[in-house]
Amino acid sequence: MPSVHAPRQPVEPEQMSESDPGVPADRLDAGECGLICHIDGDHEDIERLKTMGVCLGRRLHMVKSGDPMIVSVMGTRLGIAARLSRHVFLRLDDGRPCHERHLDA
Amino acid sequence: MSSCGSTTAVRATSGTWTRDPRRPVSPVSLPVLPARAAVPVTVALAGNPNAGKTTLFNQLTGMRGKTANFAGTTTSVRLGSFELDGKSIQLLDLPGLYAMSEHKTEERTARDALLGKLSGRPRPQAAIVVVDATNLARNLYLAGQVRELGVPMVIALNMIDLAEADGLEIDTDSLAVELGSPVVAVNSRSGHGFDLLKRELAYVLDSGPDAMPALPEGIAACGTCTTCPHEARYDWAEEVGARAVRAKGTRLMSLRLTEAIDRWLTHPIHGVAGFVLIMAAVFISIFTVAQYPMAWIEAGFGFAGDVFGAILPSGDLNSFVVNGLIGGIGGVLVFLPQICFLFFLITLLEDSGYLARAAFVADRPMSRVGLPGRAFVPMLSAHACAIPAIMSTRVIENWRDRLVSILVIPLLTCTARLPVYVMITALLFADRPVVGGVVFTGAYLLGMTAAIGMAFVFKSTILPGASSPLVIELPRYRLPSLRNALLTAYDRGRAFVTRAGTIILGISVVLWVLATYPKLDESEWSTVVPAETIAQVADLRTAAAIAGDETEAEALEAEAGALLSSYELEYSVAGRVGKAVEPVFAPLGFDWKINVGVISSFAAREVIVATLAIVYGIGEDAAEDEETLSATLRAQRHADGSPVFTTATALALLVFFVLAMQCLPTNVVTRRETGSWKWPALQFGYMTVLAWTAAFVVYQMVSVLA
């Protein structure tokens, strides 16, 4: 499925500075994955995300982009609205296929 | 390693839980609960949504569960009981939880329930925490939190069969040591592992909290983390999960199957098409399949009415039993098949994993009117009956979204409105079935449009804010459990009968009294009944007296009774009220007789059909014959000779019934679900004002056009 957002240049982990929060999850294409490095805000809906496993240090795999989107975290598939996922920032993985990493998890 | 066939028991020694080969496994040597077990023993059941908690509850308690609210809260809990070593154990099924944070009411309530902080509910002596074996790390988060509360617990490692099919091996011994609690592999559908689960529970109850090993360091560290408790807990859960689980290859077949199905069912185009098809199939099945048992119930109550009508002497007692009691109970029970069938299908869809996809697909269009995708299924259910629909709004997590859904659900066309729609379309368009069909459909669409419009209004005014953004777990697809669906249908059906049935029965009795008293004595006929009618009645009675055939005499007496019934009603309290409110409904084209119908159907809208039949003197039995009723209504004239049921009046009546509340049991359920009379009062008030205004506009516009 084509991406619903503007083309994005991949961000390599080494290119990120301390102040760089990473890539918002709503800008990932299907098949991409990364490590959750920052979550913006602490309102009720963000807390809901965190209790379902979308929290710092977890690996997130974009299964289906769009709004809402499907992500996989800790082996669970979650449907998430784009307006919520843009609060989640990731450091993208290297070129290794995300699907393989997902199976590792 | 443990498997479904080799469940494992462990016990505490020196602060940890280790395998104890000497543990008795024979049922005859089960540990005996101490003397304190004489007071009811409560065990809480906790677990993530989709972990199989409900199936485990049903498997343990059979059909003895009932749904209730925690005192002073709107959080529902299921209560059941089962035998353990000769003692009755009360099982407290907490809502499905991902965590026990302070942010969500349900999670806070569950935490308080586990700590014994809720009034009227003792602290559970132990907890069974249901953990999905196919998704161990995510489920361990909650298990760790329950353990941290200090409640003695047993882990039921559910779906172990699926985990094995996925090529996962789980070391329950190691898990038990990490959690400081016994771990039992179970299959909640087949009941496999339940004997051992019960034995472990008996052992934990017997040992009490003092015998619990110290809180494992990993869990204790999570509670003291001040930076990100979620991160710390999930780090711990992932580490524990990684140590306990070993993947044999990378089969994960069910996951790949789920991905393949989801590519279709969550697609922006095929997904919506599939959603419409599946929901249409549910909707159509409810109406087609349920019509047979509904007809049986109607026939059964009709037969009971005939039998009691024949046995009891004619008079008030006869009328009370036949019209008040049997009519009242039958009027409610007739909707039972639809409600049971609806919940049966919804449970099958939920168990299969599809319902989460339905919410996913519906989220975007629903969010445009300020409602979450999860509100769709309750709104669909409302087309059968608003009561179970309001009950099923519990799936909506955000309170404001849930409240808006509850407030607008009664606007959707439930089956109780259908007799009214049938009556009016038959009255107006008997010879134009296509136009009648269009008007019928229009009534449905008006209800839907009003519900969406009012949701938007509420979201823009008293309950502001965008709908809560979607976060929903999409569980793997699996074959649904027929037993679970049947038990849920039974449970919801029973709740419907006890809650709505008792209320509507009471209301029916009150209405019967209001429509019957004061009685119109023959001495007072001249004040109410026209001389022409008195003469007709006298003629009929004379004919009955001299009739040779008893059946013929009864028929003549019944005809005389039918002629008088509308005047008896006019003389009753209900009739007098109908006349008193004439100024309110006159702008809608309603006369006092229609007003009696509107007032008598305050508690249950379908009552208007029978009431109009009585008011216009054709009897309740004739009301079942649409042609007789519509022909009689068409023939009604005002004193000046103009027809009572003009197109404008009939359409105004239709619109009024599409939009008016007219269902007391729904109001009562709203009160129960919202915990306050404020919201049912608002619901009744806004719907009545909306119905009156819309009926007024329709009456005035059609009158001008005509």
**Distance N terminus to C terminus of chain B?**
82 Å
Multimerization state: heterodimer
* Uncertain segments of chain A: 1-17, 97-105
Number of helices of chain A: 3
Structural class of chain A: alpha+beta
Known CATH architecture of chain A? Roll
The overall pLDDT of chain B, averaged over residues, is 82
Number of strands of chain B: 12
CATH superfamily of the largest domain in chain B: P-loop containing nucleotide triphosphate hydrolases
- The CATH superfamily of chain A appears as Ferrous iron transport protein A (FeoA)
Number-wise, the strands of chain A total 6
Major sheet size, sense and barrel closure of chain A = 6 strands, antiparallel
Strand order of the largest sheet of chain B: 4-5-6-3-7-8-10
Helicity of chain A, as a percent range? 10-25%
Classify the helix fraction of chain B into a percent range.
55-70%
Which sheet architecture does the biggest sheet of chain B show?
Answer: 7 strands, mixed
Give me the number of helical elements of chain B: 31
Rounded to an integer in angstroms, the radius of gyration calculated over CA atoms of chain A is: 13 Å
Q: What is the typical, i.e. mean, pLDDT of chain A?
A: 77
pLDDT under 50 segments of chain B (min length 5)?
Answer: 1-15, 21-33
What does this protein structure show overall?
The complex is a heterodimer of chains A (about 100) and B (about 700). Chain A is an alpha+beta fold. Chain A has a single domain, classed as Ferrous iron transport protein A (FeoA) (SH3 type barrels, Roll). In chain A, about 20% of the residues lie in helices and about 30% in strands. Chain A has three helices and six strands, in the order ββαβββαβα. In chain A, strands 1-6-2-3-4-5 form a six-stranded antiparallel sheet. The longest helix of chain A is centred in the middle third of the chain and has 8 residues, at about 45-50. Chain A is globular and about 30 Å long. With about 700 residues, chain B is of the alpha/beta class. Chain B folds into three domains: about 10-20 and about 35-245, Rossmann fold (3-Layer(aba) Sandwich); about 270-415 and about 425-485, no CATH class; about 515-705, no CATH class. Helix content of chain B is about 60%, strand content about 10%. Chain B has 31 helices and twelve strands. Chain B has a seven-stranded mixed sheet, with helices on both faces. In chain B, strands 1-2 form a two-stranded antiparallel sheet. In chain B, strands 9-11 form a two-stranded antiparallel ribbon. In chain B, α3 links the parallel β7 (about 125-130) and β8. In chain B, α17 runs antiparallel to α29 (about 645-660). Chain B is elongated. The N and C termini of chain B lie far apart (about 80 Å). The model of chain B is unreliable at about 1-15 and about 20-35 (pLDDT under 50). The interface of A and B includes residues 56, 67, 70 and 103 of A.
